[in-house]
Amino acid sequence: MRDVAVIGVGLQKWGERWDRSLRDLFAEAAHNAINDAGVDHIDSMYIGCMSGGLFTAQEHLASLMADYLGVTPCAATRVESACASGGLAMRMGWMEVASGLSDIVLVGGVEKMTDVTGDEATFALATAADTEYEGYQGVTFPALYAMMARAHMEKYGTTIEQLSHVSVKNHANGALNPDAQYPFTVTLETVMNSTMVSDPLRLLHCSPITDGGAAVILVPAELAKSKFKKRPLVTVAGSGHATDTIALHSREDFTWLKATEIAVKKAYAMAGVGPKDIDFAEVHDCFSIAEIMVTEALGFFDKGKGGPAAENGLTARTGSKPINTSGGLKSKGHPVGATGVAQIIEIARQLWGEAGKRQLKDPRRGLAQNMGGSGGSTLVHILERKG
Amino acid sequence: MKIRSPRYAREIPQRYRYEAAKTASGKIFFPPRLVYPGGETAKPHMLAQTGKVLTWTILTTGPAEYADLAPYAMAIVELDDGARITAMLVDVDLANVKTGMRVRIEFRKIRSEGHEGLLCYGYKVVPE
Q1: Beta carbons of A339 and A86 less than 8 angstroms apart
Q2: Is B59 on the interface with A (CB under 8 A)?
Q3: Interface of chain A against chain B, CB under 8 Å?
Q4: What's this model's pTM, rounded to 2 decimal places?
Q5: CATH 3.40.47.10 residue ranges in chain A?
């Protein structure tokens, strides 16, 4: 396999983008990435999107996006793994370049979520759970994560304050990200007094509904070194992918994200590193409890210690293991198909030293973890700066 | 989204009669499957009717078809045969919902669909 480098990134301001359609969001992000990389063509492209069908009544995104990016007859593939669709697109693009099949591949993700009502969006998102045996019974995604939160609180003593610190921290980071949907800070008190959604989770423990696109350009490291030298070389050191049961109730332990554990072990093995070697990470904080559980499953903190780690500032930008410097899903927004690609963008920007006011001090290695549903699928990528 | 009748009818054995399957090694699958992990075979099994709450939540807002029920409790229940289900926990004072509480399955209306108000049935749980 060939080493693969990230040489360009693109997205746009995320939020309720009533001025942008599904195709616009993708084309804008992809065009920005192509210009940022300085490539004159792409050999192939991947599009992560959870549900063009339910959110906008549009499928066949391969043709649509190649058309509206103006690159037909370029090969294009739409991939779906619920909220992990973007991470899956990244893995597919990485495989295509690593295998030698293509040299310049665009990896994009997109979701247009505000063309439907809140009820319809809730319905579309709920299809990432078991429709017949979870959705039919009356659960929503906040409810599934609320049940995980309760199990985690009862097993480990995790507190609502600790959950709330995750939201406060991610908003503090997102306030420094001009592309974020909600670029403002929130206080612990505001989070803890926000509207109850699904006990114990309140509104400010939940990521929002967002319109957005994101794209990156991947090339072989050798090509990056010879032809695309404007930035430090950033390569994909490891990639991991795993699944778990679709229904939360089928899992042995509701407090443990097994697919994340397995995916990250694969990525660590490929990269030849462990959790201590990761300088910072973007993780899937669709709900604040998710960030706590993910940081445990990644091996950053012991089981049950994710909550205290957040409370004690270990995951802040100034902490020992900065998590979600972009603002995470909570503050940056969560256009589900784009999220996994935007995580790669934040890692690349931090490694290039282009993260603006939220720039970490000389990070060498970052990890992105993107998760579908209640943890039924997970993608992990580790990026490294060489030299 | 409306559910067409074949799709609804297909789930009746599980929603009305709690039909599950038990593999040779003793693991219960609900619903039964066409293929079992490890190539195991399974025999029909009817879910135990009582169990305990493993984890739960109270939804302040529900999906559109359940919105009128809010606030309502949802729980993951481990039945006494070891099978696990997700179900609405009803006929309970929401202040008294607790992990570990004993519950039993009851056959209930789940929702009504469309302008015609077609009734859809299934299981909920109530305090034992």
Answers
A1: yes
A2: yes
A3: 119, 122-123, 126, 132-140, 142-143, 146-148, 150-151, 154, 195-201, 247-250, 254
A4: 0.97
A5: 4-117+209-233, 138-207+238-386
Separation CA B103–CA A87 (nearest Å): 40
Nearest to B122 among A122, A136, A248 (CB): A136
Q: Is the peptide bond before A275 cis (omega within 30 degrees of 0)?
A: no
Q: Which CATH architecture has domain A138-207+238-386?
A: 3-Layer(aba) Sandwich (3.40)
Every domain of chain B and the residues it spans = 5-127
ipTM, 2 dp: 0.96
Note the pLDDT tens digit of each residue in A185-228: 999 999 999 999 999 999 999 999 999 999 999 999 999 999 99
Q: In CATH, what is the architecture of B5-127?
A: Beta Barrel (2.40)
Q: Is A381 a catalytic residue?
A: no
Q: Do B55 and A148 touch (CB under 8 A)?
A: yes
Q: Does B95 touch chain A (CB under 8 A)?
A: no
Find how far residue B34's CA is from the centre of its chain: 20
CATH code that applies to domain A4-117+209-233: 3.40.47.10
How far is B58 from chain A, CA to nearest CA, in Å?
Answer: 5
- A31, A49, A83, A171: which is the annotated catalytic residue? A83
| A142/B59 Cβ within 8 A | yes
Non-local (6+) Cβ contacts of B128 within 8 A are B50, B102, B103, B104
Is residue B11 within 8 angstroms of chain A, CB to CB? yes
Residue B1 has pLDDT above 60, yes or no: no
CB-CB neighbours of A308 under 10 Å: 18
Rounded CA gap, A114 and A72, in Å? 28
Average pLDDT over residues B30-56: 97
